[in-house]
Design goal:
Layout lengths: L4 H18 L7 E7 L2 E8 L25 E5 L26 E11 L11 E4 L4 E2 L4 E9 L3 E9 L4 E4 L14 E4 L3 E9 L5 E9 L3 E5 L3 E4 L6 E3 L3 E6 L3
Parallel strand pairs: 6-16
Antiparallel strand pairs: 1-2, 1-3, 4-5, 4-7, 7-12, 8-11, 8-14, 9-12, 10-11, 13-16, 14-15
């Protein structure tokens, strides 16, 4: 069973040994041609030994793709080639609905009031965000995951709105007090990684952010996906946040 990156590394090393044994590490130049629905979509050349250390990409033009079933034919001269394929598309929408595949994901925003008395078991007073937020206001983001099936090797990514700055948490990101194994703050999202979650309960992570520019922002949904099991996936719904200049 393929359970970790160690298994991935073993598969790569075995593949290298196979290439050595079959003599595919060296060989003549090769031309790879891709046809989509009978029409040529692209052609690439690989020169001698460089073919193992170089990856090339062919992007298929949308007008070659038909509605429904499509046929892709890959041909190569002078021996085999190894390839992967992926498809992506974008749909214009003012709101993206949640997709509760392997989990239900909700996201909440709260105003942070450090001057008021803190709520029970809290560091500061939280008020649910209702309406406009002002530039410079501190906002707490809470993402809650309710698994509908057992989940393994999961990544949970919450997009950060453009014009917002995430405040780094001074706590220990490697602490065993959290249900996840690691948290990362990136330029456009906050990500947490969990080895396993049971098919019950609710699991939350939080972070603080501050708006730096006024405007209306469409925040993309929180996304959950498994690094090894593509069927384990889910997403929340999109959110709109309005930011005013304030005082």
């Amino acid at each position: 069973m393929w359970r970790s990156t160690r298994d991935s590394a073993a598969a790569v090393l075995a593949f290298i040994e196979y290439l050595k044994a079959t003599g595919q590490r060296e060989g003549p130049d090769r031309t790879v041609t891709v046809h989509v629905n009978g029409k040529q979509a692209g052609k690439v050349e690989f020169a001698g030994a460089s073919k193992l250390g170089e990856a090339k990409t062919i992007e298929i033009e949308p007008d070659l793709i038909a509605s429904g079933l499509n046929t892709v034919k890959i041909s190569a001269s002078s021996g085999p080639v190894y390839y992967s394929m992926s498809a992506s598309w974008h749909v214009e929408a003012k709101k993206i609905e949640a997709r509760t595949g392997s989990a239900e994901i909700t996201r909440e925003y709260f105003r942070v009031d450090r001057a008021a008395a803190a709520s029970e078991n809290g560091q500061y007073r939280l008020t649910p965000l209702d309406g406009q937020v002002n530039v410079g206001e501190e906002i707490l983001v809470r993402v809650t995951v309710r698994p509908r099936s057992a989940m393994e090797y999961m990544a949970f990514e919450d997009p950060v709105p453009s014009g917002f700055e995430v405040r780094e948490d001074p706590g220990d990101r490697y602490s065993w007090n959290y249900w996840y194994g690691r948290r990362e703050v990136r330029d456009n999202r906050v990500a947490v990684f969990a080895h396993a979650l049971p098919a019950r309960g609710a699991w939350s992570f939080e972070y603080l952010m501050t708006p730096e520019h006024e405007g209306e922002y469409l925040v993309m949904p929180t996304r959950a996906w498994s690094m090894y099991y593509p069927d384990l996936a889910a997403r929340g719904e999109s959110t709109v946040i309005k930011v005013g200049r304030g005082q």
